[in-house]
Specification:
29% helix, 10 strands, alpha+beta, 280 residues, disordered N terminus, two-stranded antiparallel sheet
Length: 280
């Protein structure tokens, strides 16, 4: 695998995705270091610093029901926008790396309902019209896209599972994450049998709901990247999920504010509001 040279990055430069990937690949002295860098690069691809706000950590994991105000000055659409854009706890990049399992009790697990069928692009579906159903659908969408290991696989998923005005085959963070992995690994868009990606949903939280048909679930995944050796990291994703006819889809509008990407099961994961996921 070729090493790539990266320009020196000024100390005050923002850690944009292209700069981060270039630095990590250039610094990788072994395959293990390279794939560890890929985990970090994927975190940045899913949640670029530009345009997606974050806040300081909070210990309040409560689900918010964002409803139009009683005097009619806030519409349902405005409530949805406010919910999606509301900042989430900010964590350091190091929080995504494997850490000590907490002794604390995160509370009752979130029970994800089982899929009842396989939908377009091979994504499990058939989840109920509930916030937990929305979370289960998002987990299935992200997992299928990432584990496809190819640009075509990720594009096929978002093409089938986003409404018009939602993330596209070029804008979706899942596509950008796949592009980052393949580029940094020196692979083509078709991927390679030598690269294995396992994306496992382990924790989550419901950021909020607006009525019965709009939910912003957040899922914290364990990402395992194997390229001769394996590196692991925690990566989270939040999306606007909307109910359409008989299933949940990713809704229109900008992707929600950056969720905290933390190693599942740690003290910090609990502090920022994540709970364990259990498959029903």
């Amino acid at each position: 695998m070729r090493r790539r040279r990266a320009n020196r990055i000024p100390a005050d430069a923002r850690w944009s995705l292209p700069r981060l990937v270039a630095l990590l690949v250039a610094a990788a002295g072994t395959v293990l270091l390279l794939i560890a860098g890929l985990v970090i690069a994927v975190t940045h691809a899913l949640h670029p610093s530009e345009g997606r706000a974050a806040s300081r950590p909070t210990t309040d994991p409560a689900v918010t029901t964002a409803a139009p105000d009683p005097v009619g000055t806030t519409s349902a659409r405005e409530a949805e926008e406010l919910l999606a854009a509301r900042p989430m706890p900010a964590v350091p990049l190091s929080a995504s790396r494997p850490g000590h399992v907490s002794e604390r009790d995160p509370g009752p697990p979130i029970v994800l309902p089982p899929a009842t069928e396989v939908g377009p692009a091979g994504v499990p579906t058939g989840f109920p019209h509930t916030p937990e159903g929305a979370m289960a659908q998002l987990a299935a969408i992200d997992q299928t896209a990432m584990q496809s290991g190819s640009m075509n696989g990720a594009r096929a998923v978002i093409s089938a599972w986003a409404v018009p005005g939602g993330p596209s085959t070029t804008s979706w963070s899942g596509v950008q994450a796949m592009r980052t992995v393949l580029s940094a690994a020196g692979l083509s868009g078709g991927g390679s049998p030598e690269l294995a990606i396992v994306f496992t949903p382990l924790m989550g939280q419901i950021k909020g709901v607006v009525g019965p048909d709009f939910v912003v679930p957040c899922v914290d995944f364990e990402l395992d990247l194997t390229l001769n050796q394996t590196a692991r990291g925690g990566i989270a994703d939040c999306q606007r999920m909307v109910w359409r006819t008989d299933r949940w889809l990713i809704g229109a509008g900008a992707e929600p504010a950056v969720p905290p990407s933390v190693w599942p099961g740690t003290d910090l994961a609990i502090e920022v509001g994540y709970r364990d996921l259990r498959h029903g």
